[in-house]
Amino acid sequence: MNEHILNEIPPLSEKDCFHVIERYKTEFTFPLHQHKEFELNFIENGAGLRRIVGDSMEYTEDYELILITGESLEHVWEQGDCDSKMMREITIQFSSNLFPPTLLEKNQFSSIRKMFK
Question: What's the predicted TM-score (pTM) here?
Answer without folding.
Answer: 0.84
